[in-house]
Amino acid sequence: MNVIEEFLNLVLPGICVLCQRKGSPLCSACKSVFSGPVIEVQRSNTDGFLLKGFAVSHYSKSAATLVHELKENSQTSLASAMAKHMATSLAAGLKENNSFRSVCLVPIPSKKTSFQKRGFNPSLLLAKKISNHLRKQKSIKIQVENCLRLNREVLDQASQVGLARRQNLAGAISLVRPPSSKEIWLVDDVVTTGSTLLEAARCLSESGLRVSGFVVFAETLPKHLQKARAAAI
């Protein structure tokens, strides 16, 4: 995304991407759709490593639209509203776990080709916006550390399933520099199998760092878990 696109995003009258109401890229009525209870999420790998986190929403049609507009249509003005809900989810989780202290948000890195196409890393943008919202709560000292990178090109995770997702990411993330805070929370837009988040956590843990958890805007279940959830309803 170039400077002109960013400027136009800020100054032109917005149209809600969900209901097409004029006035804002995400109107107050549509924002309220994402004001439900915090969704607790967990993902694990074949070694039994468990990573817990929080999501704002299940991957509904509305959530999918916001993620698509942010990432593929450079609607960066949506990031603040999305991040506000993510910040609320994270703050609730931190409070529940008595973790109000120095927190470090570490965004999942973008592929080089994706960054070149978009001009920004959606996860980094969301992390910065989350930080802005949480800094208003004086009890939380928060920082953003863009300290991970992909050390090779990987396939689009959306086109992969199950084992292929894990193999695609295996060993692909490396640490540029260690974050200064001991309480690390990973930030991404969507979690499916959790392969990307688990690989990031592996990278950090191998450097002697512990990941407390993750926060995402939406959770979409892998197909086998979708079937299990449907059967349980």
From TrEMBL:
SUPFAM superfamilies reported for this sequence: PRTase-like (SSF53271)
Similarity remark: Belongs to the ComF/GntX family.
Protein name (Swiss-Prot/TrEMBL): Unannotated protein
